[in-house]
Fold:
Amino acid sequence: MRRLKLDRFTGVVSAGKEARVYRAIGRDGKEYAVKIYLTATAEFRKSIQKYLLGDPRFQRIDTSSTKKLFMAWARKEYRNLLKMSSVGVRVPKPYLVYQNIVVMEFIGRQGYRAPLLHEIYNELDSEELYSIYEIMVEEYKKIYCCAGLVHADYSEYNIMYLDGEIYIIDVAQAVSTSHPNYLDFLKHDIGNIYRFFTKQAKLKIQNLENLMKEIIGCKIVCPKK
Ligand SMILES: Nc1ncnc2c1ncn2[C@@H]1O[C@H](COP(=O)(O)OP(=O)(O)OP(=O)(O)O)[C@@H](O)[C@H]1O
Ligand SMILES: [Mg+2]
Structure:
């Protein structure tokens, strides 16, 4: 706690299969989201194989202990957040990684987290949904073309929505484009965007092949490093 410069935890925001997310107040009085990896499910072990060891940035990780795997996974999430924010992707600002804990900006208001896209899309009109579609495509281009990463779990479950703005979360599994399977993950992500906006949000958008071409075509000006 002292190391994290956090004053107090105010509650659990989410208790997932592998990680818990807490809201905490820092010594500076600001609110933070604190994600702690705790449970090594069979799925987590699969993810380690699929998204960590294949990523050249993390090939030399010691996999002998569960604790070390959590630490590597938390570090990967933090580094992905840093890399994405450095090219202007709308992710929570990363503040710190310590062992199995990632501290980042809290996305919400008055103590409550913002809703996920899948929780509120049916309250939005098609104009708002179309604007979210365009933003999600542009953000994906920044991730792929500017940060050199693919998210690998890009869906309405990992997008938060606050005041007409989106925030992309849950980036631990994102891999660099030098991962041997990055293209499969990329296609899966783009397929998710297409499925959600055509089937759930019921929008008329370009076909999947053109959407794929648009994203892979990388017509975007990236910020200078
Ligand atoms: N920065 C944040 N600010 C506010 N809430 C957050 C933040 N990050 C995550 N959350 C909340 O915690 C939930 C779980 O976070 P995340 O998607 O990163 O973890 P996960 O490992 O996928 O968990 P799960 O197994 O529940 O999907 C999110 O759906 C969201 O409600
Ligand atoms: Mg998630």
